[in-house]
Fold Glutaminase.
Amino acid sequence: MDFNTILQEIQEEIQKYFTKGKLANYIPMLTQANESDFAMSIITLDNEEHHIGCSDKKFSIQSISKVFTFTLALEYYSKELYKRVGHEPSGNPFNSLVQLEYESGTPRNPFINAGAIVTTDCLTSIYKNNAFDEILAFMKKVSHEENITYDEDIFISELGHGFHNFALINLMKSYQNIKNPIDDVIQTYFKQCSIMMNTKQLAHSMLFLANHGKDPFTKEQIINESKAKRINSLMLTCGHYDASGDFAYRVGLPGKSGVGGGIVAVVPKKMAICVYSPKLNVHGNSLIGTKALELFTTKTGLSIF
Amino acid sequence: MDFNTILQEIQEEIQKYFTKGKLANYIPMLTQANESDFAMSIITLDNEEHHIGCSDKKFSIQSISKVFTFTLALEYYSKELYKRVGHEPSGNPFNSLVQLEYESGTPRNPFINAGAIVTTDCLTSIYKNNAFDEILAFMKKVSHEENITYDEDIFISELGHGFHNFALINLMKSYQNIKNPIDDVIQTYFKQCSIMMNTKQLAHSMLFLANHGKDPFTKEQIINESKAKRINSLMLTCGHYDASGDFAYRVGLPGKSGVGGGIVAVVPKKMAICVYSPKLNVHGNSLIGTKALELFTTKTGLSIF
Amino acid sequence: MDFNTILQEIQEEIQKYFTKGKLANYIPMLTQANESDFAMSIITLDNEEHHIGCSDKKFSIQSISKVFTFTLALEYYSKELYKRVGHEPSGNPFNSLVQLEYESGTPRNPFINAGAIVTTDCLTSIYKNNAFDEILAFMKKVSHEENITYDEDIFISELGHGFHNFALINLMKSYQNIKNPIDDVIQTYFKQCSIMMNTKQLAHSMLFLANHGKDPFTKEQIINESKAKRINSLMLTCGHYDASGDFAYRVGLPGKSGVGGGIVAVVPKKMAICVYSPKLNVHGNSLIGTKALELFTTKTGLSIF
Amino acid sequence: MDFNTILQEIQEEIQKYFTKGKLANYIPMLTQANESDFAMSIITLDNEEHHIGCSDKKFSIQSISKVFTFTLALEYYSKELYKRVGHEPSGNPFNSLVQLEYESGTPRNPFINAGAIVTTDCLTSIYKNNAFDEILAFMKKVSHEENITYDEDIFISELGHGFHNFALINLMKSYQNIKNPIDDVIQTYFKQCSIMMNTKQLAHSMLFLANHGKDPFTKEQIINESKAKRINSLMLTCGHYDASGDFAYRVGLPGKSGVGGGIVAVVPKKMAICVYSPKLNVHGNSLIGTKALELFTTKTGLSIF
């Protein structure tokens, strides 16, 4: 398959969608993105790379960070994590308190905000004050990239406007499902959301999940095969908030989106993909990113189904 | 009617219920109450007073404060208040976030926590840093009692454990239904809940609501007749969380309970009543207080129905 | 008080509202009402009568029938009834299945459709095939009016379009909270809703509830004083679906509305009132009827608060 | 891979689970199943067959029928079907009316009861009185088996006890999302649930979905490739009610369960599987069937992730 040609076709076919969608506006900093940005990166397990668009431009990874923190917590803390976070689709928007209250503070899965905050609380229990440093170290390891950090302005913007996340963490604390001080956990959480990466780096970072848990180049087993499959399964059923079914239906690949405009996806045993475009659809997922991935699986037949 | 005899009968008949119910435990300070305490005070519009039990013992008024802050806000701010807080029974427990999320941050009524917090936010917009002082001044005026203050230990205990209230205020802030800084509003709210009063003082404080808004002794019109009736109506339909219907059904008087163990009630055009006993029923209302008021209306026929 | 003058003032002041509201459209027959109809009847316990408008025109009493079936069931069946129907405001529209499912088939109160259907099921258990005849006989007794029956066309229209009520009764049957065959119960229920009465007759029928359960003319104790007060309390907290709090707030009298356009209300120890106007507000209550009652209590001061 | 050995290992390892789970009891007929029954069938695209247990014993396919009716409706009616049924996980038990009411009568997906009833309504619009015959004809075609019919006793049992399904269809009718008479649609629906098949026949019937829509033996394209993938995607995200995420997590294959005790699953491009054991777990899925499939993917590594 000629991936360069496919990427070029995709880039052409998505042009008509640039008039649609809206930049994330729940924190002011995200409204400053460039609406016409587009990038897509493919990296195969045998180290073939294909990129198109602004694939060197960094953006905040936002909820894509949840895949990595969950991986980290699952490796060191799976028994407790399984008790405190479920793995069912929520059937509700990403920030719903309703489900959380009906289910007494236990989030449906680690890829909605509440579940990701509990995951970060688990990492805080393990790593104490170093939790964010360890998350960053893990990102560097899986991306093979030393030069990764978070954006201070975005972090501050999250802290000052993330009232809904403060509501979630306080609600879970009232149900004793947050073990560490709220301020410690929420700061680490907002920092991980503010990590800046480009599509090349993110595609690279997902390769171990396409390869049954093993880094295809260093051969390090980042997480065991069974857990890697479960993370992929979670991305498929829960990776796109209340549009997860639609994404599975249209794209047919495990993936995870972030409100910064990025989406990562894996083709098991073959490759990892990352696409970026900052305008979001009504479900909070990159509108053009979703479209590009749908075109990709239609053109290549590389759906898991 | 011989109210002293009636109070004595009530005190006897409630004895068997002291084994039931549980102290409030959502903040540690409230668990230190004396489980066997009981007090009941009746003050008529023509200044007849009847008391039984520990009617000089002060307890934290908790949600009873909502009646007074709502009165104050209604007088100075009614137009905006009507837009930001409803007046329908919630049909849900006092701290439900579910309703609040479905209805985009607009609390059902001013007597559930969320509605009372919005009310305190209104008072903060009017009185700025003096909000709590003004609330306290109002309590002193309506109770004819200078010696009223809040309990610092209870206040600190609320601040350190009131995660659910923090969740509520953050959720409403995310819907722009809180105008002032969260910390300012929540501190005033927790202080008003920590105000210490006894049944004599609270019964006295409710007389203006039994008297169509006018203080029966000073003749000051605290609030106009129409608003006074509406506050009574709200107490009847919403004064006891998700047991409001049951209270109206059994007692048949407008009233308001607090998790500190107090309940106030009014017999329109006749008298105000306050009862205290700290153990709560499953709905978070004083178990013996509710029973005592039910006995009172059964014995006297003084229901509004 | 000169009630004739007051009724005339009300009739004038409501004229401007005739452009507002909408006829009930959930069954076709109800859309045939005359939009400009208005009637109001007041009957006092000492047999003074005041009427204005088309007070001889009959309309289908619809949900007003719930007051009478509940009275009848409460007298003969109260123990079981208390277990199977609650007495809390629902906080939801009159036909909500949500609450019913969360609470396993137990309706919140007897004045929402689900609760009224359970009440009719109770009457079916007592009276078997004669259930509707007994309901009609009761209506004749309390109205002192032999010439009352139901409208066959409206009944057929309900049967053919009342899918939501069929959903409710089937859901409750699945929770074993309906004891008799669905068809028997639903037919009786739709017949009771189709009973045709005018404001004179309905006002008359409510007098026993204004008089602590006793017919003021025959002196027959229809229901005991305690139960009569509880029915009044239920009308106040639950009589107008999810606008019950608003009705209590604005009108301040126990009352019950029907989608046919009628509203009944009582002033305890004084009088019964019925108002009719077929266009409904968004909550399904007569728009002009609600307005007229609000004007009535404002002008007379006859609120219970 | 030696599938016979694997099936034998599975049969041994599941023995300890026979003490767990419960027969479906929502209709009386299903309680008559033999608790110790177990069967598992694997059929590959190149026509290798492996069976273990009572693979000739027929059971009612129940919700497994939803896969086939949805396939049929999708082929002839996809435009309208997409408007009337969603494709998101429900996050709720299979029979929830809550979601249906909040979303105005539009079911979340075709594999919960409400969505399957709308699907059957679509087929009734196409095939009129022949709807059930066409469904049965389709089952015969995809299973290569003439001798398939429904069980009259189970059908009658469903009709007499399926109150919850009657509630669902009436609710959707009230929202105009059912176009045909309720009795016609519900009878066809209950008949399709009562179709009797064994694991051999069901595994055979699923082969076209493992083969991108084409019957691997007759080479007939039952449904196009894109639609076949979408059906697989729907089975993965929504095939097991509110345990769909868990099934994807543990088993990692598209599948569909029925309360009769059957579960079908496909390994795309490789094979179809059916397992049967009548005792259900708390989510209404075959307890041993789920366990057997989990063992199967663990032993073979044949998850799609």
